[in-house]
């Protein structure tokens, strides 16, 4: 009954959902009553059987709480006028009924609270000692209810963000970078514009090529740092003061096209689709030799995609999936300066913060900053190789290499591939490369494939090592760093633990990682994060990542 009711809500049929939630509540009441029947009283005195009866009762109570929350969710859907699968309380993405969102918020808050309380109560019942179907049923219930509680909380915060951002009169800077001009936070600002808000009515002012201070800001791996710089640059330009910043690059724009449908643009025979948009933004505009014309083409295509999205009313599920993908991979980020606004943005994962440090954390973080104005970065594949040997005293000896393979052609000259400079041909990729290390790192040594000055510094609470690289089309080059970090292993719940934290620079294709953690001789791996492959007393990870991830290893034994 709960499953049918929830599906009815999501598909925009709250009236059909209501009787199913009622039926689910009645079934839960019967289950709770059965557990309290005298025939189960003596059985409940037996330790193993008693645990199972208590777990069954906890599941029934959780089902009743879920049904009650579902009944409140029906009221939310009614307040939002949610009658189909598309974004509710709207006639288009750019035409929102703020009053409806505000009216539905209290009930949605109640739904989120009830589900979280129910999930907490169910988890506190504990699953130790359960057997058979009760054990599997309990685990499934905990997992399902926790997921529903998280989704309800996110939906509530999303509604609150809508009313906060789009209620009243506001102006937001929209920044679209070019990932081909690589920067630690993704790419250099290429196109900018202003989204004007008037109590739910969203209008995009003309998008224009980024110029002056806006084009030249330092793009940090930490999005809030970059956003504050963008707000300052906007205020000093003809744009003027803004209330926040929206970052969306070609990868997230392609997801937006997937959500809202194909978009016709000038100069291309076929409309942009969810398979062609990134190339239409990152490659095609820059094939010529006029930088100004290329920038105007880029701005026009970005503008048409965003306006098409604002004029259409996409499905709520596809929009949620696209937004989640963009935020995870840091291709979509939002900055609002107010404390409560920042909390909302952070709760939804849109804050783009670079959380690099932590106790027992070994960072795997490399960034690169293109030298010159070409867009060759679009063709460069990056691989980070890192090997950490954990010593018996809890320290680690680390060797890391950041490898760049330049897949660019060497002809003809263009805005995309650049022009020959001295003995450097078309398609050359040059960049300053930085590797982040634990703040306590010692005995740091580094070199590039072709000798360059090495700089040791600090940034975002960590130590950094930087060098410069240059690589021709069809070739590869690297920065290699070795160091030792003391006391990187910590004790958690009786086991030793180390966390490898991957934070990729946003790119078109993601960053490939090949990692190995070798534990002291005789160690036994107790647990390891999904994605880690256990090999005796070592663990490895290999794959392409587009967003941050923590890889946790807990182990015992060995010499300490």
What key phrases describe this protein's structure?
560 residues, alpha+beta, Aminopeptidase, Immunoglobulin-like, 3 domains, eight-stranded mixed beta sheet, 37% helix, 29% strand
Describe this structure in words.
With 560 residues, the protein is an alpha+beta fold. It folds into three domains: 164 residues, no CATH class; 179 residues, LCP protein (Aminopeptidase, 3-Layer(aba) Sandwich), CATH 3.40.630.190; 197 residues, Sandwich (Immunoglobulin-like), CATH 2.60.40. It is built from twelve helices and 23 strands. The strands form four sheets. Strands 9, 12, 14, 15, 17, 18, 20 and 23 form an eight-stranded mixed beta sheet that branches. It is globular and about 70 Å long. About 4% of the residues have low confidence.
Secondary-structure map:
Blueprint: H1 2-10, H2 14-35, H3 47-80, E1 90-92, E2 95-96, H4 98-125, H5 132-166, E3 169-183, E4 186-198, E5 201-204, E6 208-209, H6 212-216, H7 223-235, E7 245-248, H8 250-260, H9 277-282, H10 291-311, H11 316-328, E8 332-335, H12 339-347, E9 361-370, E10 380-390, E11 396-406, E12 429-437, E13 442-448, E14 455-459, E15 462-471, E16 476-485, E17 490-492, E18 495-502, E19 511-518, E20 523-528, E21 533-535, E22 538-545, E23 549-557
Helix pairs in contact: 1-2, 1-3, 2-3, 3-4, 3-5, 4-5, 5-12, 8-10, 8-11
First-residue to last-residue Cα separation: 55 Å
At the fold tier of CATH, the topology name of the largest domain is Immunoglobulin-like
Detail the poorly predicted runs.
34-53, 128-132
Strand content: 25-35%
Shape descriptor: globular
Structural class: alpha+beta
| CATH architecture tag of the largest domain | Sandwich
What integer value in Å does the Rg equal?
Answer: 27 Å
Q: Largest sheet, if any?
A: 8 strands, mixed
How would you state the average pLDDT, rounded?
A: 88
**Count of distinct structural domains:** 3
């Amino acid at each position: 009954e709960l499953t049918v009711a929830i599906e009815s809500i999501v598909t925009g049929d709250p009236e059909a959902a209501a009787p199913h939630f009622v039926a689910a509540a009645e079934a839960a009441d019967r289950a709770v009553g059965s557990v309290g029947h005298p025939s189960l009283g003596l059985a409940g005195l037996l330790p193993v059987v008693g645990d199972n009866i208590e777990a069954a009762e906890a599941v029934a109570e959780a089902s009743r709480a879920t049904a009650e929350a579902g009944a409140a969710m029906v009221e939310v859907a009614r307040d939002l006028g949610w009658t189909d699968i598309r974004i509710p309380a709207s006639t288009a993405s750019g035409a929102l009924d703020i009053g409806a969102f505000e009216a539905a918020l209290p009930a949605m808050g109640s739904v989120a609270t009830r589900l979280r309380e129910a999930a907490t109560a169910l988890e506190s019942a504990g699953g130790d000692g359960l057997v058979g179907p009760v054990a599997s049923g309990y685990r499934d219930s905990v997992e399902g209810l926790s997921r529903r509680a998280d989704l309800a909380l996110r939906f509530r915060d999303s509604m609150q963000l809508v009313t906060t951002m789009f209620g009243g009169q506001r102006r937001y800077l929209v920044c679209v970078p070019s990932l081909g001009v690589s920067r630690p936070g993704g790419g250099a600002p290429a196109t900018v514009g202003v989204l004007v808000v008037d109590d739910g009515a969203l209008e995009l002012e003309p998008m224009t090529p980024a110029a002056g201070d806006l084009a030249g800001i330092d793009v940090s791996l930490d999005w809030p740092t970059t956003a504050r710089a963008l707000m300052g640059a906007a205020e000093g330009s003809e744009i003027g003061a803004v209330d926040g910043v929206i970052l969306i690059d070609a990868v997230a724009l392609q997801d937006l096209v997937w959500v809202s449908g194909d978009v016709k643009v000038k100069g291309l025979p076929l409309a942009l689709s969810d398979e062609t948009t990134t190339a239409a933004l990152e490659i095609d505009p820059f094939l010529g030799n006029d930088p100004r014309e290329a920038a105007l083409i880029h701005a026009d295509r970005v503008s048409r995609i965003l306006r098409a999205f604002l004029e259409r009313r996409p499905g709520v599920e596809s929009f949620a999936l696209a937004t989640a993908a963009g935020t995870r991979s840091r291709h979509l980020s939002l900055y609002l300066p107010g404390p409560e606004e920042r909390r909302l943005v952070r709760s939804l994962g849109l804050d783009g913060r670079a959380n690099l440090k932590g106790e027992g954390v070994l960072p795997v973080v490399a960034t690169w900053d293109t030298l010159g104005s070409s867009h060759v970065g679009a063709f460069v594949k990056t691989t980070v190789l890192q090997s950490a040997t954990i010593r018996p005293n809890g320290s680690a000896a680390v060797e890391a290499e950041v490898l760049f393979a330049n897949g660019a052609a060497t002809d003809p000259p263009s805005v995309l591939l650049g022009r020959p400079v001295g003995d450097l041909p078309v398609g050359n990729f040059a960049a300053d490369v930085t590797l982040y290390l634990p703040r306590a790192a010692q005995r740091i040594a580094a070199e590039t494939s072709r000798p360059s000055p090495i700089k040791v510094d600090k940034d975002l609470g960590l130590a950094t090592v930087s060098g410069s690289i240059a690589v021709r089309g069809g070739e590869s080059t690297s920065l290699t760093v070795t160091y030792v970090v003391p006391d990187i292993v910590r004790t958690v719940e009786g086991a030793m633990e180390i966390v490898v934290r991957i934070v990729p620079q946003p790119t078109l294709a993601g960053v490939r990682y090949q990692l190995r953690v070798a534990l002291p001789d005789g160690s036994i791996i107790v647990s390891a994060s999904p994605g880690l492959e256990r090999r005796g007393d070592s663990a490895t990870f290999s794959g392409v990542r587009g967003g941050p991830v923590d890889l946790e290893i807990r182990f015992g034994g060995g010499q300490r």
